[in-house]
Structure formats: structure tokens, C-alpha cells
Give the backbone structure.
Amino acid sequence: MSLICEKKTEYVLLVPKERDQFVEFAIKEFNDVIEKSTGVRFPIVEDAKKNFISLGNTDALKEAKIATSYGDDGFAVKEKDGNLYLFGQSENGAIWAVYEFLERTVGYKFYAIDEVKIEKRTEIDITGLDVEYTPSIAYRGSGFGVARDNYDYATRLKAYSYYGIRLDGKDFWGSWAHNLASIFIQPEKYYEDHPEWFFHLDGETDIKKMRGQFNQAIRMQLCLTNQEMRNEFAKNLIEHIKKNDHATYFLLGREDNDGFCECENCKKITDRIGESGLYMEFVNDMARRVESWRKENAPDRTIYIGALVYECGYGKVDSCFVPPVKLVDGKYLPKDPCVVAEPNVFVLFCAMTQPEHSKSVYCEANKNMLDIMNRWHVVCDHYCSYIYYGTFRRGFEFVDGIYRFKEDIQFYKEMGSKYFFVESPRQKAFHKMTLYVLTKLLWDVTLDTDDLIEEFCDNYYKVASPYVKKYFRYMMDYCSKTRDRIKYLTGVRADYGMCLTDTVPYGYWSLNAVYDASLMLDDAEKAIDDSDYDEQMKNTLHDRIELERMVLLYIQLEYFNREMGDYEEARTINCYPKEKILELCDRFEAGVNKFGITFVNGDGTPQEVIDGWRNRAIKTARGWENRINLIHDKFNKK
């Protein structure tokens, strides 16, 4: 059966009578892509008996009685009696079905917001189309340069924007991260009448001083055994759930510090089952109360209550990060029945300081982290996953962890994880390629990472692809060998890619490596110049290479522009002279303005960082200039 034959069609696009934002988006994506491929645009109707493409939950779909077995966020593409049905489990289901259909029929591929592949077709046959599919991970946060409100970009990657925001701007998270006091029991409202509900770090009682970044009460925690507080908390939680009627997941996260209430009641319990045990018992209590309310007031809703298993207990013997289990005859068992998760409870696990951050949880160096996650699985089957890729403080470091994703996703999938998100700064080396690889693997973890990298580079960098891939492999190999060398010489591994590491150690990057890498990008630029592309395409490709070159500029400015302590240090350190630094600053500043870069590192705005490099250059030049500046400074101090 031909849907399109010789650029003509007898079919219509059948849509529900009440169309939401998701269906509207699916209609537009379907018709826009088909028109670019075939020149055909389908009429949109709300009623049809034959020759139709049913999109979403139409009456025709109900009448067709098509049996399906897909799971969370799954979809189906079905031909039946000459008609085509595109639909799915979630609000996005019809969209996922549309993309599957487009990929199979017109070679549609979305690589990045600025690179889409659509093949030309004169005919489309739908005979026997029968596809059912469930993504490897149901709820796939995007990250990597996708802003909270960039819903189209995330959706075209078959993911959700940022932590997990849908196309309509609604987050399937009803509450997120550290919020016990930030949202549910706010000290501004309750502290004066109920100081016993709060535990103060360092004895701090000034509410203004407790408050920190993101309005978190970072200098306190709640007393989790106080029943009066629990009653108020449950009441506020249920009100919050009612207001966020679109959300499924409600995370109850302790405040972002290493404190825990030390009152007599809390100590009595934590001495027996640990801080994590008391925390899980609290989450279970809230979950039971919510479930009781849900059954009576919102029986059609699915609501999960979550524990944030976050490394907030730095250095403590027992914390909320340590699983509440015990070893009995070689087998881990729950410390107490009260810590075993209720059916509507999940654990969001944040692997914040994974020792070997460039590799997966299966790496030998990460076996302790793997063991911790496996022990958490003893008390909770419903897992969600939150990993870190790169430091918050550095946006232009080259992070060599792209190959960890496949094994990590496979592990979390086997753990029953329904959610996966990677925290990362927006600007980063190959961030669009990394985003593409990550979201493709979250959709289908059986795919091969190398194949995805090859495909992306060939389609995104085109004629420059061989040289870009050579540059990428060179940087990956350099990072791996340098880590091994530093570990061999010092006994300490240079894993700067983790969240808490501020920057790489001096000596990590060499100028020889920067020069070699620059030559590879030069070859990429030459290939573009020598190509038959028109000027517009050449300029586009040059911009893509220039953006990757920003990483090399950053390395030179950050690590070869040092302020020296004395002449002998300056004489032995490989640094650029002042004029070279100022030239590189100009180039980096031009790139910042050209590409709209909003974050370089944690030292300030991009302009403040660049100005800091320029000021530092005064004392950076090798030899006499550096020495004269040092003498001048000492003279002025006197």
C-alpha cells in the first residue's frame, strides 16, 4: 500500500478531536519532514473511514483494537487494513511514533539543532509496518547544552529537556533535589514557633545565615523523628502534589550538607539502623500517607515518592549515602523492615565522586561505588540515576568520558532505573556530539558508541570529518595516557572530570599536544576550503571547527598563562609571553561573542574571565620582563 506515489497521496492525517500541544507538535513534525522529502503535505481531518494516518489516541485507534505490549514511554507504528496508526503510552508517544516512521521511510535523522538529515523520496510504502518499541530508559533528561525551555531540541533527540521537562514546559518531577526545608518545612515560616523541628549546624540559628545558593537552608536539617513536624510535612507534601497534578515523581531530598539531627530520639534510631535507615523510614512514612490520599482522592494518578541518595555525608562513618543494610552469612539484608522501600518509593542515586570518572561503574577503580549501588538495590527496586560529567566550575575542559555512558546506562537499566540524567556544564568539547550519543543510548542501549560517533561526525562535520575524528581520538588518547602517567609518577589519578574537581593539575596539558591538536583542526579547515560546498555551507563548517578550537584556546590561556611566584619558577615553567597571551585572549573573546557563550569557568562571567587572563599576562612573560615586574611589585610594596 502506497502512502505516497509519484509525489501524490490519497491519504489524510487523522487527529483527535481535542488536540493537545503534543499532538500539534507531532502533526507539524510529520508534515514538515514529509514535505521536505516528497513535496507532499497531508490534509488534517478529525474524521475518516479509510486511507488515513491515525495520529495519537483517535477514535479510529480505539475502534481498531490494536493490541500492544510496549512499556513506559513506549510507542507503536502499525499498518492495519491499509491504514496507519502512530501512537504511544505517554504524552510524547505519538511523537516518538512519528520519528520512527520518518526514520524508516525518508531516512530522517536529527543530529543536532543545526543538523538534520532528510532524504528525497517519490514513494512511501506502508505495507506490513508493524513496530512496537520501549526505550531503554523511560525518562531521559537531556542536559549538555539543552536549556530548560528548549523543548523542541530535546524532543527531537527523543528526550526531555534539562532534568526532565516535557514539551509543554511541565516537569515530570514535582519536587527536585535538596528540599525538605527549602520547600516543605521552611524555617522562615516554622522556626520561630517550632525550633525543635530543626537541627542547626555549628549552632547557627540565624535564618538568613542558614540560607545559601538556590535558597537552600544549607546550615540546617530537619529532625526526622519529630511527629508533629512529620504531620505538617505530610500535609504540605500532599498540597504540593495537588498543585503539581502533571507530575509523577516527588523527590524528598535532605539539605545539601553533611549534618544530621543529633537529638536523643534521632540518635536512638540512627545508632541502630544508621542515618540512611532513619531517612528511608521517614520517606516510607510520607509515601504511605500519600498513597492513602491518592487512593481516595486521585485514583487515576501515578505518584512516586523518592529518597535522594546523595553523597552529602562527606567523611562520616554512617550517612544517608551508606545503604541501610547488614551482612549476614555473606549476604546483604535490610537492617530493619522499616527501611525496605514501599511500592511507591524510588531511590535517586547520585554518583557524585566516582573515583574513575571517565569510565563506567564496572571499572575496577569504581568497584566500591558499584558495591554501594548494589546494596541500595537490596532495599529498593525502583531506581533513578543521576551522574556527573565534568565539573560545574569549568565549561571548556576536554572530558574523556563519552565511552562510560553505554555501560552505565546498561547497569542502571538492569537495576530497574526509569530515569537517567547527566549533569554537565553547557559549553564543552564536542558537547553536541556527546548529547547525541547519550540520548541515542538512552533510547537504545544496544547501539555502539563508536558507530554513533562516526555517524555524527560524518554528518555534522562532513568533509572535515576525518580530521575532526582524528583530533577527537588524539585528545581521548592523550587524556588516557596522561592519567596513567600521573598515576604512575604520583600514585594519584588525575580525574579532573568529576563534579568536585576544580581544574586539572598543572602539567596535565603539554604545549606539544596543543600544537598537534591544532594542526589536525587546521587540516579540517583546509578540507572545507578545498571542498565544492557553497560559501554558506563552508562558513557553517568553519564555525563548527572554530567552536571546537575554543577548547584549545582555553587550555592555552588557563594553563600557559601563569602568574609566577619568583624568577626561578618562571625560568622553569613553560608559559607564553605576554603578547601571545593577549592575542589568544582576543581570539577567545571573539569566539565568546560569536557563539553566544555564557559560561567559561567559575571565576566570573566570560568577560571577567578573559579580563583576568589579560591582567595575569602582565606577570606571565618569560625571562627579564617577568623578573622586572616582580622587582617592580616588591619595590611598590616597600
Observations:
- DSSP finds 20 helices and 21 strands in the chain.
- The longest helix spans residues 264-297.
